[in-house]
Design brief:
The complex is a heterodimer of chains A (about 290) and B (about 700).
Chain A (H helix, E strand, L loop, with lengths): L7 E3 L4 H10 L4 E3 L5 H6 L7 E4 L9 E4 L2 E5 L4 H7 L5 H8 L4 H6 L2 H7 L7 H7 L2 E6 L2 E6 L4 E3 L2 E2 L6 E8 L5 E6 L10 E8 L4 E7 L9 H10 L8 H14 L10 H25 L1
Parallel strand pairs in A: 1-3, 2-3
Antiparallel strand pairs in A: 4-5, 5-10, 6-7, 6-10, 8-9, 11-12, 12-13
Chain B lengths: L17 H5 L15 E7 L5 E6 L1 H5 L4 E6 L21 E2 L5 E7 L2 H10 L2 E5 L18 E2 L3 E2 L2 E3 L2 H7 L2 E9 L11 E7 L2 E6 L4 H11 L7 E4 L15 H13 L3 E4 L2 H7 L6 E9 L5 E13 L12 H4 L4 E11 L12 H19 L3 H7 L17 H12 L12 E2 L2 E13 L6 E6 L5 E4 L9 H12 L7 E4 L16 H22 L9 E6 L1 H5 L7 E13 L5 E11 L6 H20 L5 E2 L4 E2 L18 E5 L23 H13 L10 H5 L1
Parallel strand pairs in B: 1-14, 12-13, 16-17, 21-22, 25-28
Antiparallel strand pairs in B: 1-5, 2-4, 2-6, 3-5, 7-8, 9-17, 10-15, 11-12, 11-14, 15-16, 18-19, 19-24, 20-21, 20-23, 24-25, 26-27
The chains are: A alpha+beta (about 290), B alpha+beta (about 700).
Chain lengths: ~290, ~700
Amino acid sequence: MSKAMSMDFLRPMTWAEALAAKAADPEARPILGGTDVMVELNFDRSRPSALLDLTAIPELAEWELRDGVVRLGAGVPYSRIITELGDLLPGLAIASRTVGSPQIRNRATVGGNLGSASPAGDAHPALLAAGAEVEVESVRGVRIIAVDEFFLGPKRSALQPGELIRAIGIPVTGGPQQFSKIGTRNAMVIAVCSFGIALHPAQRRVGTGIGSAAPTPLRAHAAEEFLGAELDWDGPLDRAVANRFGELVAAAASPIDDVRGTAAYRRHALSVLARRTLTWSWEEYRCV
Amino acid sequence: MTTVDMRYTGSALDRVEGLEKVTGRARYAFENFPADLVYAVPVQAAIARGEIRAVDVDAVLEHPGVIAAIWYGNAPRLVPSDNADLAVFQSRRVAYRGQYIAVVVAETYEEAKEAARLLRVEYAAEDHDVRLRADHPNMYRPEKVNPNYPTDTEHGDPDTALTVAPVLVDATYSTPAEHNNPMEPHATVAEWDGDALTLYDSTQGASGVRDTVAPLFGVPPANVRVISPHVGGGFGSKGGPSPYVIIAALAARHVGRPVKLAVTRQQMFAVTGYRTPTIQRVRLGANADGRLTAIVHDAFEQSSTITEFAEQTTTPTRIMYAAPHRRTTHRLVRLDVPTPSWMRAPGECPGMFALESAMDELAIACQIDPVELRIRNEPDADPESGLPFSSRNLVACLREGARRFGWADRDPAPGVRRRDRLLIGTGVAASTYPVYRRPSQATAQAHRDGRFTVRIAAADIGTGARTVLTQIAADTLRTSPDQVLVEIGDSALPAASLAGGSMGTASWGTAVVRACEALVEGLDRRDGDLPAAGMESSADTTEEIGAQRRLSRHAFGAQFAEVGVDTDTGETRVLRLLGVFAAGRIINPKTARSQFIGGMTMGLSMALFEESIMDLEFGDYLNRDLAQYHVAACADVRDIEALWVEEDDPHLNPMGTKGIGEIGIVGTAAAVANAVHHATGVRIRDLPIRLDKLMR
């Protein structure tokens, strides 16, 4: 007779208890909104030894603004990002609106999105473009990981055994930010591909984030460098520059053919999204 | 034929069981818990073709709570029937991947699920063939197509007519496999009492399930009772008992306790039927003025190796347009795939996508407005049978739709209308659905308190059947709906035809009217003086329906769509959808509108989203849940309206109704595809209209 499967359900009331529980059982699977974890359990894709329910820890569901950085608790749901952070984090708020359905936006969190590390996660491109940092913690201490070093592979992140995501630090740039996603229907859809952009006028720099078009979400470094060199921050947007930017973004991706779209289509669409979001951001920047 | 007085029929009565449903009191199949209930979880074949060598039953019996594991090797024998899909566990053969090959019964659902997951099955796999292609060497001509139409028809000399036609359209269209996804997945609870079986099932026809299940277990139909008061959608997938019903009954008999079996959403993609993929070649020959001289429509489809289901894809082409030379054919290939079945408007739905796309191509070739082209080819009588139409108001639908939609002065040039980033286009397609009516029985009972009970084993699968039967009964009984209780959804009630073929209201309504008329007559004879037990009358419409005049009876409609296609990404959104229908008298405008726009939404979904993708390597459908098999979301349906034209047809039934459950889906996909062509100049002949198809 095989061992009957059982799963512990741990519900720490404080962050310290959560870290202790994770240290005691590094295989314990953290759960917040459950919009990814419960699907995995339901489809029997994973069988963690324990579920570590973090929803009772008050500070995870809070955010604060300090020194020009929003420290977003890992458990703040998307619906609150939309209503509370639209001014400070416009790119993430736009991306949040494209997540699932209202019910899912009420449950799902950026912390959970990062924990799952799906290449198609809707928050990732906006975080990459904004230059966010992931604050992770274990009983050993706190580590700050730049978000573009966080994703290691499909559903694999830089989290080490015993570490939990505490918060995400997102700089408030005051510059325009955009996010655009292609889906096969208007709601409740996994991105065919997505793109986030953030202008950092103070640094005369543009941040980018590509989703659903490579094994991990990623920045288009060459495209960012190109804009850094070629953008005339005091003039109108040169069409040729925007087009070249689109090409460089497409070139940064390494998409595949799947049921949602072909690789060729994804590259094409990414160039369109990059050009488009740059144009929108530039219009906003010039109007301010 | 008499006509029902129209006091309550025609009014927008709220659903009579609406409150029960929205408060959760309406009980669905899964929500029945007889004493000593146990749970069954079936096991699906992990190969697409071959044999089951062995199943390790003993190992799972060791698991907590497990009562039985049943497969071919230890299953009780069923009485042989001609339905191979229902002969569960009667053979070692595996006909398709996902076929139910065993079942585990346990005290709880979780225990059964875990044991089913661990059940070791040894197979001898064989090479499988799951790809439909028109030139498949095993294509053959089935003897008939669903439900009982001739496979092929031919009139005149279509080949010569096509050769000499001044204008020729010759195009091949394809539609993918599509799966029904009713809100409520299939479920049944089976309980034996000696040789008597009770099934709480989610079904479109309680009488039909009883008549099919009973002989498999060697008991008379009277020993089987099927209870199904509420059904959360069916669309055809609950038209007859699927294998899971037989498994539940077999398991319940085997373990001697009531058994509950719920089909999961993922399993539904293999075991509850689907719409066959189709490949269709349409050839239209016409004069320069658009008048058709020849219509040829050839369809290629698939079925499983164990059951022949031949969808009637080209049958609407037999009645749509006038042309002296014509041919329709169906060819089928038996593959190692699950058995296809009914999905809303089988035949008409995929067939009219091809025909109405081809008509749009002909309109462009002839430089004639597509509404006018259809009007120009309107036949005087059924073009193949020569029978008169009982009524046919396609032209009225087209004209009224064109007026409401703002079709006049439409510039036919494709790819020229821009609104911001969108290319805008409009499209039209005709719609049709046959008028069926089947014999049914009903009783009507008068109570001494002035109330009435009407009984018939009809099914309300979310259509509003219970409500419209209440309206029909109230008018016939010359009372108000709140005085009438209509009991349906139980095979112990007078036998009725199934909720399918859009024939429920016509079939059941006729029986209800006749039973109520007989009761009124009886009451009139007694001058209203009722015996203490009340009074009951019954009706059986077999004779009446058998004697009805031979006519060509069909509903018609016109679908108009406006789309916006993103010039750079190919994202297509349906901006407006308008359907105008001629479907006899409308009994309830509220529930009727829901049927029409529900069908149209499903047609929009077919046009843009729905596609079951066959995994050629493993031989099953790849996208088996609602996250991957996309149906339209509310956000995809922006502006949708359904209207109907007055139609007074005395040759139908006492209510004067035609069916409305399926016509809404017919033609919608073609209207959308035609609008996409008008918007972009790109003709998509293979559904769905995926964004990468528009950018290639």
